[in-house]
Amino acid sequence: MAASAVSNPSQLLPLELVDKCIGSRIHIVMKSDKEIVGTLLGFDDFVNMVLEDVTEFEITPEGRRITKLDQILLNGNNITMH
């Protein structure tokens, strides 16, 4: 890849952008009524993601439920955006 593409974020490919987020706190919006915040440990070509130090936010009929998890594996098919 040309050096100019690295310095210009608008020219980054999606997987390159996700790769730059490894080790960072990210906010994931799932297709269900869940949002997940955690530190990205890794991902694969299908954008399945492993996060640690995770907080899961879910909207339920009773209100907002917050769940803390040490680690989670997310299926890339269920991720709306990150």
From TrEMBL:
* UniProt subcellular location: Nucleus
Task: Give GO cellular component annotations, separated by semicolons.
Answer: Lsm1-7-Pat1 complex; spliceosomal complex; U4/U6 x U5 tri-snRNP complex; U6 snRNP
Report keywords, A-Z: Acetylation, mRNA processing, mRNA splicing, Nucleus, Ribonucleoprotein, RNA-binding, Spliceosome
Q: Name one GO molecular function term.
A: RNA binding
Its GO biological process terms?
mRNA splicing, via spliceosome
Enumerate the SMART domains for this protein: Sm (SM00651)
Q: Does the record carry Ribonucleoprotein as a key word?
A: yes
Question: Known PROSITE patterns for this protein?
Answer: SM (PS52002)
Q: How does it assemble?
A: LSm subunits form a heteromer with a doughnut shape. Component of the precatalytic spliceosome (spliceosome B complex). Component of the U4/U6-U5 tri-snRNP complex, a building block of the precatalytic spliceosome (spliceosome B complex). The U4/U6-U5 tri-snRNP complex is composed of the U4, U6 and U5 snRNAs and at least PRPF3, PRPF4, PRPF6, PRPF8, PRPF31, SNRNP200, TXNL4A, SNRNP40, SNRPB, SNRPD1, SNRPD2, SNRPD3, SNRPE, SNRPF, SNRPG, DDX23, CD2BP2, PPIH, SNU13, EFTUD2, SART1 and USP39, plus LSM2, LSM3, LSM4, LSM5, LSM6, LSM7 and LSM8.
Q: Which family does it belong to?
A: Belongs to the snRNP Sm proteins family.
Q: Which PANTHER family match?
A: U6 SNRNA-ASSOCIATED PROTEIN (PTHR20971), U6 SNRNA-ASSOCIATED SM-LIKE PROTEIN LSM5 (PTHR20971:SF0)
According to its UniProt entry, the function of this protein is described as: Plays a role in pre-mRNA splicing as component of the U4/U6-U5 tri-snRNP complex that is involved in spliceosome assembly, and as component of the precatalytic spliceosome (spliceosome B complex). The heptameric LSM2-8 complex binds specifically to the 3'-terminal U-tract of U6 snRNA.
Q: What is this protein called?
A: U6 snRNA-associated Sm-like protein LSm5
Q: What is the species of this protein? A: Geospiza parvula
